[in-house]
Amino acid sequence: MAYSREQLSQIVEDYWSVGSVRCPEDDSIINIKRSPHAQGYNLIGRCLRCGQAVKATNHDDPIKAEFRRWTAEELTEMAEDFYESRSALCPVCEVDLEVKPLATHMKPPRLMFHCKRCLHHATYSPGPVGQSEAAQNT
Ligand SMILES: [Zn+2]
Ligand SMILES: [Zn+2]
Q: How many Å lie between the centroid of ligand 1 and the Cα of residue 9?
């Protein structure tokens, strides 16, 4: 029997919040491979006890109804966290964000945030010290 929608949703939740996934039928650890693509991602794996294959996608995420854009305040906080600790969490799904500095020749460089779970991304443009307006031109 294939896993139900509810079981796949639980698998997606555990993948992101627990960091490991167990077979809902027999509680065995399943190694999950995440493959991102242009519209989202797939979670692929197979239970080595019962042999059932996992094929879940971002559409099975139980919190996807809560996904939304980050506010400007959240983006500023994410940047502060990144500057201070070199890591930042998505304020919506609490997953570690990918942070890429852009245009590092600029002073200050911009930061590109990307969340692997809710798939949002945004660019943070810090204003030069003493100016409130963020520089938008390349
Ligand atoms: Zn199993
Ligand atoms: Zn997120």
A: 16
